[in-house]
Design brief:
358 residues; alpha+beta; Rossmann fold; OB fold (Dihydrolipoamide Acetyltransferase, E2P); 2 domains; 6-stranded mixed beta sheet; 4-stranded antiparallel beta sheet; 8 helices; 22 strands; globular; transport; membrane; AAA+_ATPase; cell membrane; ATP-binding
Length: 358
Amino acid sequence: MAKITLDNLAHSYLPNPKSEDDFALKELNHVWEDGAAYALLGSSGCGKTTLLNIISGLLQPSRGRILFDDVDVTHAPTAQRSIAQVFQFPVVYDTMSVRDNLAFPLRNRGRDEKYVAERVQEIARMIGMEDMLNRKARGLTADAKQKISLGRGMVRKDVNALLFDEPLTVIDPHMKWELRTQLKKLHHDFGHTMIYVTHDQTEALTFADKVVVMYEGRVVQIGTPDELFERPEHTFVGYFIGSPGMNVIPAKVEGRTAYIDGSSVELARGYGPLDGKVEIGVRPEFARLSQSDGLPVKVRRVEDVGRHKIIRANFFGHDINIIAGEDDPVSADMNRVTFDAKHVNVYANDWRVEGEAA
């Protein structure tokens, strides 16, 4: 296990980067706690895999340092970092049996065969492959091979960190849930530092202690699932986390009031003058459809998804979503909306502004 420090870390794939836009990974300064489980979350091309490959040693950063437990490993090869990495697509030894694939990292480090056998059996049980241990890897399905890759990554207990690069892409949906559960159990039992790259918010939020949200090469927020939901620090976080994501509406903010096309929305905090692009953000869960209260809204359609209803509406020319409970009435004469003031966030140039309490 290791505390991982990212010190002025940045990377460009260009030989002579001239500006910040030339960097695939913008400057990072973060300390990731020893033994914690992190998820790197963001859309394709945001820098997740670049960062993971720098941590693993597969890529040398253009700038800055990476430290494991305060030891500089920036230029140390992967083999010296004592990490295990599982890639997006399965990497297995086709000529070996499942048993020998799982045992390989332990035998390569000279562990005795009794320990190897016990540990392989434990991991095989974890990934649901006990009855396949004697089969050759060749000919197995892609998801079975990926389970072998996951098992081989987890078989060692003495690693500084376990790194997962979208490891469940080829796994069927039911098995994804089972494997995420097993990874959580592994983390609880052994306390490895784990870093899990994904573009799937469900995977990130159910796996990690803290989620690292990346956008255009930059870490825009590190937080617990509750923090990302309640207080998105960047509009991208609000948009990317949640289903549907946060409503983001252009507004003029003065003190404790936001003005949208001349109509006012109450805020729970006060704000001074804000420059640039100003918006309010409110999640659909904190918007309520009404017959008489609030501001006018035009309902376009209602989607009943079982546990709740998603109301798609137009609000002063902007598309917004409202979530109503499964048993909440929704009728044609409900054409106004209210927002819970405590859960209305204010953004200037996409970044959340804290505001002052009353």
